[in-house]
Amino acid sequence: MTVKALIASFTQQEDLNFLLTNRIPRAALTRFMGWFSKIENPFVRDFSIALWKLFSDLDLSEARKTHFRSLHDCFTRELKPGLRPFDPDPSVVASPSDGIVGAHGKIADTELFQVKGAPYSLLDLLGDSALVDQHRNGSFVTLRLTSSMYHRFHAPFDAHIERVTLIHGDVWNVNPIALKRVERLFCKNERAVIRTHLSSGEAVTLVPVAAILVASIRLHFLDMVLNAQTRGPVNFPCDVDVTKGEELGWFEHGSTIIILAPGDFTFCDGIAEGTRIRAGQALLKRN
Predict the structure, then answer these.
(1) How far apart are CA 98 and CA 82, in angstroms?
(2) How far apart are CA 92 and CA 98, in angstroms?
(3) Average pLDDT of the segment spanning 103-113
(4) Looking at 95, 97, 98, 253, which residue is catalytic?
(5) Which helix (H) or strand (E) holds 66?
(6) Are the C-beta atoms of 101 and 256 separated by less than 8 Å?
(7) 220 is catalytic
(8) 17-21, 49-53, 69-73, 171-175: range with lowest mean pLDDT
């Protein structure tokens, strides 16, 4: 058995995985990782990336550049042009990012779920009753980005962005093991609520959720990084039009995006829990 396989079998033990990634000083470790990942030292960079490869399926063959200034620079890497074409059908909501499809389906009035048997409410997630009403009985899908994936996310359709709300919170791990054990996890973690609407005026909301080691989200249209250190207003009014496929920002490491769409959107062929999906791939389509 290789060292990598041995590590994988070790970390797949649920009790141990949960202990090592959650029962630790989560916030302090996340702040440390934010600082450490930005160190521009060749030894630190090379050692960190080598260690990262040992614990993951990191593949840098799609990266636009082959030399990185730091671990953070590698985390937030761009891809070679043309590798993530977006579905051109205007009736399709494309995947905003690479990810693994998690819980998805119809919202039962205002209730959705993080895993089977673990519900949470739109109000707890969004914190705004008016926005909740716009997504009542709608559709939702959860996309989980692993640490090795492409971390940038894009506009899933031609959209108008009207507001971003930062909701401060914890940084629990968002892997399937934690989702089974921590109730309403997405409602407890740091997250941003990005309010957009289609040309028809219907609301589609993106909720990037932070996690341990990754509590920073960069949004280009705000020209800022949102994280636990963000002070001042947590509501950011916007008046920004974006085109399908346009880059919106990135996670500093890897995490989760929840997409909330109108109820007359159905899931495209091949969308099933556990499926790996790429940015630009058809995700939801209007009936």
Answers:
(1) 14
(2) 17
(3) 96
(4) 98
(5) none
(6) no
(7) no
(8) 17-21
Out of 72, 104, 135, 154, which one is annotated catalytic?
A: 154
Q: Which two tokens stand for residue 182?
A: 């921590």
Distance CA 102, CA 104 (A): 6
Determine the Cα–Cα distance for residues 30 and 260; give it in Å rounded to an integer. 28
Task: Give the H or E element holding residue 89.
Answer: none
Whether the pLDDT of residue 284 is over 60: the answer is: yes
Does residue 102 carry a pLDDT above 50? yes
Contacts of residues 2-9 at CB distance under 8 Å and 24 or more positions apart, as own/partner, are 3/54, 4/54, 4/55, 7/54, 7/55
Which residue is listed with tokens 């250190």?
Answer: 229
- The residue among 251 and 40 whose pLDDT is bigger is 40
- The answer to whether residue 216 is catalytic is no
DSSP 84: S
DSSP strands (E only) in 168-281: 191-197, 203-209, 217-219, 224-226, 235-242, 247-251, 256-261, 265-267, 276-277
Active site annotation includes 199? no
Task: Find out whether 152 and 98 touch, Cβ atoms under 8 Å.
Answer: no
For the chain, domains (ranges, CATH) are: 3-75 (no CATH), 92-286 (2.70.70)
Percent of the chain with pLDDT over 70: 88
**Both structure tokens of 263:** 């109820």
| pLDDT 10s digits, 74-99 | 989 999 999 999 999 999 999 999 99
Task: Judge whether residue 254 has pLDDT over 60.
Answer: no
Tokens of 40: 């521009």
Which of the four pLDDT bands, split at 50, 70 and 90, describes residue 55?
Answer: confident
What does the block give as tokens for 249? Answer: 């920002």
